[in-house]
Input
Amino acid sequence: MSTVEATAAHASAAAERGSWLRRLLLSEYLVLLLTAIYVVCMIPLAPEIVAVDTWQDILGAMMPLLVVAVGQAFVLIVAGIDLSATSNLAISSVLAAAMMTLDGGPLAGAPAWLAIAAGVATFVAVGSALGSLNGACVTRFNMPPFIVTLTTMMFFSGLAIWITTLLTPDGSSIGNLPPGFAFLGQGRVGGMPFSVLIALAVCLAAHVALSRTLYGRWLFAIGVNPRAAEVSGVPVRRVVFWAYVVCGACAGIAAILYTARLETGTPVLGQRILLDVVGAAVIGGVSLFGGKGKVIWVVFGALFLTVVDKGLSLLGLSLASVFAIKGGVILAAAIVDAQRQRFVRA
Output
């Protein structure tokens, strides 16, 4: 073989490898494949990872994370971010529990169904209100989303602790919730966890909004190029504002599931899952640069993170080790996202 032919063959092989890598990085099922590989690799170390009980635990832990991550995806699509999602969980949990509690709450003497309905409405209303505040600061005052949501995260986390201190002797949590409320997070319908049904409803509504509505097209247009979108007649400020409202409402719904699982309203709810909330969306493929995302990607990302978390706990690793490993996984996902953007622009 001549030198020219050898060089051409080498270039062809390199191009083929590059094409294969490109297809792999751009595949929307990459995270699902990595999840399967992780489970297979974990079987020799922790065989119980394939047990039915283990996967029931994984589903139970995944559903609230999935709901709040779906809301985060709306904000990421417009190239924003909401760091206050965890404080939204906390303040929603505390205020709704204070509304429902039988220990001197305003609805202590009301029928259980009424107290639960009022509590659920409080969850969603508080979450949406906090999302509205974030959206107003970002769109009306042109403040950076990172600064806005970091500030509201700190403020509402402190407020949740202060309210709990006022309402309870030990200041740790608000309990004695109405009978039946725990069903929302722990109950089953036909063998299916009720939390799965709630999460599926949220995911379906989000999918329709992103893929079948004008609002969804506007979201992606803003994420790709906000100036071009505005010139084209897209109401950029209004669309971005409602993205934060949706994010806040999803956090409120997720707080219902978390609080029902714990059967208590706590001011530290979600304190350690901020990394997971953003990571579930980014790992799944929602771009940090905006303009790209699907609900099914968030499902894959939430599943991957929950499975990793469960696997590490089965190995008996310390909390610090779990955080370090998950942080590394999310950093790797951010690097993959950057490479995806490079391939798309190429």
Q: What stands out?
A: The beta strands are 188-189, 192-193. The domain at 29-340 is CATH 1.10.3470 (ABC transporter involved in vitamin B12 uptake, BtuC). The chain has a mean pLDDT of 87.
